[in-house]
Amino acid sequence: MFHMTAAFLLVAGSVAAGVFNTLAIRAERPSDIAYLLRLVRVTLPFIFVGVAGTLIFGLWLWHEQDLAFGELWIWLSLVLWVITNALGGMGGKHQERAREVAERLAASGDASNDELRAILRDPKGNAMSWLAGAATIGILVLMIWKPG
Amino acid sequence: MLAAGRPFFPLFLHVFGAMVLTGAVLAALIVSAAAWRRNDVVLLRRAGFWALGVVGVPAYVAMRVGAQWIYSQEGFSGDADPTWLGIGFAAADIGLLVLLITIGVAYWWRRSGKPLAGHIVAGLSTVYLLMLAVAWLAMSGKWG
Q: How many structural domains comprise chain A?
């Protein structure tokens, strides 16, 4: 139950952050973009509690349910958990950079420029967040499927 | 970890849909709460409606279809079903009504910009999030 709650917080927080990020990419005015990217910060406590909770309660369940040490699906989930965090962190840094540029432009006339557009549409930066989401879905698949 | 030996795809659809739905409602709650202080920001009204309509509705459909699919595959009949199942169905079916009303009010908020509409979206989103939380706790903890 606690493990599931943590998973709900992680995915729900990530979805909410994804909604704000997607809308920021589509927004025109830097002040709107900065505002939406600031809202992403509100979702971070949900994501952080979810990240910590899934690991702590997951390891607890591993011990509690007497699952073998060599369970492949658990090890794969742990690898994906690390990948999710690494990619999510990189995606977050990319969003922070976009927010800083958007705030600077908002304070000086609120007109977008090529720099902001390039950061917002940078495929590599956005791919980090999307791949983090995909890795999270991968963990969910493993948790339900339990292959091996 | 979820229950072993259950059909994979329907359960995945159900759980993933419920998680994404929770995220969509959380996003609507965050923007409507933010608008409490800044109701002049038009994009907050657009974001609330967008989160519920574009993300929340498909997620609800996935969650509900997955639920019915597992229900029929696992041979439940409606007689002496466990309590957690009843709580889940109640949250899903009453929740649909709450979701549709919230989307309707979010649309009104988006069009009119009235602060009251934003406050109602915030209130309904909070109620719906609590219902979803009770449902996931009951279903994952197998209450009753």
A: 1
